[in-house]
Amino acid sequence: VLVKPNMAWDRTPEQGANTNPEVVAEVVRLCRAAGARRVIVAENTIHDAQRVAERSGIRAAATAAGGDLVLPGDSGFEWTSLGGSILASWDVLSVLFQADRLINVPVVKHHSLSHLTCGIKNHMGLIGGSRGRLHQEIHPAVVDLAAAFRPTLTVVDATRILLRNGPTGGN
User: Which among 37, 42, 128, 130 is placed 20 to 30 Å from 29, CA to CA?
Assistant: First the structure.
């Protein structure tokens, strides 16, 4: 099982920019209890991956719950045909292709361009390359993400909702 939280930002759980680590841990525990042989937690971060994993609390939570944290440097990417109008072909986290199931675990928050970032926009963390340019056409890009990635389950973290200054938040 691949668990895909929002873990893009060098922020603490209290800042609400990333999925709450307790939510990630509980999803990992539930997957293990349901018989998953391996539970991988992965994200292509925006800020430094090692620092994000530590400061977000997700590395410690996922590991303690029995998950394996895989960061982009550990996994790499595979050039993949996605068939979209904006995302025709793109680099996709390789670890996605090792999983039988994808569980999307986004956090509900404000986003300056899309107004809301949640389930579908969280799939942006499954791709690499020059993602910043996708923000020039954010709405069709999100549609392409929805068509390309079909999670088995989406669990939305609303334990703390960032209402402004998203997606990174403030203080």
Answer: 128
